[in-house]
Design a protein that fits this description.
Layout (H helix, E strand, L loop, with lengths): L6 H9 L3 H10 L6 H9 L12 H6 L4 H23 L4 H4 L2 H11 L3 E2 L2 E2 L12 E5 L8 H4 L2 E5 L2 H4 L16 H10 L3 H7 L4 E3 L12 E3 L1 H20 L2 E11 L5 E11 L6 E9 L3 H18 L3 E8 L13 H5 L2 E8 L6 E8 L5 E8 L2
Parallel strand pairs: 9-10, 10-11
Antiparallel strand pairs: 1-2, 3-4, 5-6, 7-8, 8-9, 11-12, 12-13
């Protein structure tokens, strides 16, 4: 195989990763890291530039337990060694670099094929939105993965995003959060969601999925990472909105103990003192778990004071959108909005039901709307 691809192109695959891309890579390694570990990586803003220099001691100092810290140090060393080897031209890129890295890069940066059919283009990085995409010709098969990636030069937003450039607003000038969510979900990477059922999964337990119990379904983290990626690339990089993931809150709860809480996602306009929305994500949740989060979200609301509160439930459960479960009237009166997104395993068929307050303050209900 040819190794003519420049090191600057190849190393950027790691060095240009943000924290969420790094986390997706680590999930795909199946080294049994849990959400607490990923929350710490997010809190410390560990990305592709800093990760290769991390050590077990540094990870533990940040709060990660010894076992996961040892695993993370091992992966950090591997990435560092491979990057150095690439710089010296001593290894063949495709033959020696981790297959998992290539899968992540394919999923995040390139047009890909899903089940033999051409998939939707994932949301690309939008750092230079005023420039046009030009396809750089591949010099050989071995470096086509890197050299065929778009190079920025005067591109329009419509060519970069599947999502439209404009933000949907309601008649009163407020952001239409439900339309934001629908648009974001349409731009989820189908391949990443599909892989969630075999790589980053949990059991549906007693919930019926395709008329069966105990089916592997994506974990919440799969949806959380995709939602964060899309919202950041669309709302933050284009419109200057603030998108915060895993906002760390502290509170003395009913037991008198000091508790640490983590709010999944928040959306804030650039010039507004208030949050537009607080989003709490769930994945194929039971009624008891939904009820728990219907209550839990108000602990976040108490401290963050958003304009809107949304429970965003992604589920593989049969009939979740044809017979949706809603919070009690009391919680709805307090401002709780709920949307259920059902999808098939390949994320090619997505449907939605929602119950929310419109601009007039009246409750509206949408049942079984086609999204994809």
């Amino acid at each position: 195989m040819s190794t003519s691809t420049t090191f600057s192109n190849r190393s950027s695959l790691v060095e240009n990763w943000d924290t969420e891309t790094l986390i997706i890579f680590l999930r795909n390694l199946n080294i049994n890291l849990d959400e607490d570990d990923f929350k710490i990586l997010r809190k410390q803003k560990i990305d592709g530039q800093t990760f290769p220099d991390m050590t077990e001691r540094k990870f533990m100092k940040d709060g990660i337990k010894r076992g996961p810290a040892m695993k993370l140090e091992k992966q950090a060393k591997i990435l560092k060694e491979k990057t150095r080897a690439l710089e010296k031209g001593k290894i063949e890129y495709f033959g020696s670099f981790h297959v998992e890295i290539l899968e992540v890069v394919r999923n995040l940066l390139l047009k890909k094929k899903v089940s033999g059919k051409k998939g939707r283009k994932p949301l690309a990085d939008t750092s230079n939105l005023q420039e046009e995409i030009i396809e750089k010709p591949a010099s050989s098969k071995s470096d086509s993965l890197v050299s065929s990636a778009p190079v920025a030069k005067k591109r329009s937003i419509s060519k970069v995003l599947d999502a439209p450039a404009d933000i949907p607003f309601r008649n009163d000038g407020s952001v239409d959060i439900l339309e934001i969510l629908k648009t974001a979900v349409r731009d989820f990477d189908q391949g990443i969601i599909a892989l969630g059922s075999s790589r980053s999964y949990k059991s549906s337990n007693h919930l019926y999925v395709n008329s069966e119990h105990y089916i592997k379904v994506p974990r919440e983290s799969t949806y959380d990472a995709e939602m964060y990626r899309v919202l950041v690339n669309w709302l933050r990089k284009i419109h200057g909105y603030e998108i915060t993931g895993q906002w760390h809150l502290e509170k003395v709860c009913d037991d008198g103990e000091y508790h640490h809480l983590y709010c999944d996602l928040t959306i804030k306009k650039p010039d507004s003192p208030h949050l537009e929305a607080l989003l709490e994500l769930l994945a194929t949740a039971s009624i008891s778990k939904l009820d728990g989060h219907f209550e839990q979200v108000f602990k976040y609301e108490e401290q963050l004071q958003p304009r809107e509160i949304w429970i965003v439930h992604f589920s593989r459960e049969d009939f979740i959108v044809t017979n949706p479960y809603w919070p009690c009237e009391k919680l709805q009166e307090r401002g709780l909005n709920v949307v259920h997104f059902w999808h098939d395993r390949e994320f090619k068929n997505v449907r939605m039901s929602a119950r929310f307050r419109d601009v007039t303050g009246k409750f509206r209900e949408i049942i079984d709307e086609l999204i994809l």
